Q: What sequence folds into this?
């Protein structure tokens, strides 16, 4: 599969972004490739060859992305191969999971303030500010989503 220089650069940039968010390098590059590829689905071999990664690294990356719901696969009649693609229908689920994670972090940070005995006013001010922001975000987010959905409904009409 031929990729342009711009596609390769973007795969790398997407890869770095995802690495900075906890993905392993091969996993991050697979996401990048599936996003920028001209083909809607790619086979195992196409992914391995395009990224020049081992079959083991490709397999591990695809399994991780399948298990976390980031990608899905399809098959075609008469072809035994699986073809992988970004699971774009679940962006809301992934977003909600991120928000749940932030909410759990916020609860933990509130407990930190309750149990910590040391005196550190500057740190406490910053921590309370972050907790306050997370509370505000959790409160405002449903309204923002509703506003966005209304806007997109109007744009489609």
A:
């Amino acid at each position: 599969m031929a990729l342009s220089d711009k596609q390769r650069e973007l795969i790398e940039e997407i890869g770095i972004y995802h690495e900075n968010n906890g993905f392993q390098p091969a996993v991050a590059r697979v996401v990048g490739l599936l996003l920028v590829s001209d083909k809607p689905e790619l086979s195992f071999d196409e992914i391995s060859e395009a990224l020049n990664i081992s079959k083991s690294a490709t397999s591990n990356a695809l399994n991780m992305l399948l298990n976390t719901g980031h990608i899905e696969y399809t098959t075609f009649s008469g072809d035994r191969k699986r073809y992988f693609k970004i699971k774009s229908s679940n962006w809301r689920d992934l977003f909600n999971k991120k928000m749940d994670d932030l909410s759990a972090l916020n609860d933990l940070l509130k407990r930190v303030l309750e149990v910590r005995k040391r005196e550190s006013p500057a740190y406490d001010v910053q921590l309370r500010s972050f907790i306050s922001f997370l509370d505000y975000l959790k409160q405002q987010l449903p309204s923002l989503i509703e506003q966005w959905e209304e806007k997109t409904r109007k744009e489609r009409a």
Summary: Helices lie at 5-20, 25-36, 44-51, 55-67, 91-115, 121-156. The two ends are 39 Å apart (CA to CA).
